[in-house]
Amino acid sequence: ATPMSVMVASGKGATFGVLFRDAEAIETMRKVDTLVTDKTGTLTEGRPRLQDVVALNGYDEADVLRLAASLERGSEHPLAAAITQGATERGAHPLAVADFEAIPGKGVAGRIDGQRVTLGNDALMSSLGIDIAASSAQAEELRAQGKTTMFVAVDGKLSGLVAVADPVKQTTPQAIAALHEAGLRIVMLTGDNETTANAVGAELGIDEVVAGVLPGQKAQTVRRLQAQGRFVAMAGDGINDSPALAQAQVGIAMGTGTDIAMESAGVTLIRGDLRGIVQARHLSRAAMRNMH
Ligand code: ADP
Ligand code: MG
Fold first, then answer.
1. What average pLDDT score do residues 95-105 get?
2. Ligand 1 centre from 105 Cα, in Å?
3. Which residues, if any, are the signal sequence (predicted)?
4. For the segment 146-175, what is each residue's pLDDT rounded down to a tens digit?
5. Which of 170, 187, 196, 262 is the most exposed place for a label (fewest CB within 10 A)?
6. Domain count for the chain
7. ipTM, interface predicted TM-score of the complex
8. Which structural domain, as residue segments, surrounds residue 258?
9. Pocket mutation for ligand 1, best pick of 130, 192, 206, 240 (most atoms within 8 Å of C-beta)
10. Does any ligand 1 atom lie closer than 6 A to the CB of residue 40?
């Protein structure tokens, strides 16, 4: 692209909330045939809200929520904010936590009143040898509603479930429709459970859902698609997403996300509106057309 067409694309991009890092980002965007996208904070608002609390094995709902919220006070995960806020709204008072530990992609743990309390996904429970079979039908029902469902265990025994839902951004369905219209294949990546991920994927008409991805594995999915000859843009917002953003031919960060994601990306969508990807493609094509 000529310096002039780069300037024009940059200027127009800015008016749509699309920031290109450099001329290369403008030039490459038009070649993208596959969008890999993180779910939480990218397709969704990333501000989940507490929906359900289920008590099991002699606990009551207030106990389950109090234990969960106490642990989550030590976590910076969006799920933690949903649980602590939901607990506050329901009048639950948190307890002191000792030996707090965050387990990335899995959950949180700590000691409350001398008991070992853990909160997280089924992978965390199974790694600790905690039997969750008794709750699997209930958990599956919540997940089929697109809710992220977490288990609470006390001293190795299941005591309840908490479920949160993260609303899809208002602009996401339109962005997906336009990207499909342009012929892109859309792949959603998430650390979330498969049932939850598939429910959200089906609602949005996503072409391929890759669930249960651990932080650090996202770049692998990008590489797999590249090995199949796809020209990949990766959209994400989190620290976990930055290796995948760097691996993709074009990294697309949400301006509403972490600084690290933005530093790894060629394109930033200032307001996190994915319709900016469609605009970025148009600008890229226009800039390259002006060359001739
Ligand atoms: P995503 O890729 O969707 O942003 P993560 O990789 O951060 O998700 O987490 C994957 C899963 O691990 C979550 O869906 C949740 O079940 C569990 N998990 C992670 N962090 C926490 C936490 N602080 N509290 C409870 N569960 C958590
Ligand atoms: Mg995210």
1. 95
2. 5
3. none
4. 999 999 999 999 999 999 999 999 999 999
5. 170
6. 2
7. 0.94
8. 3-45+168-289
9. 192
10. yes
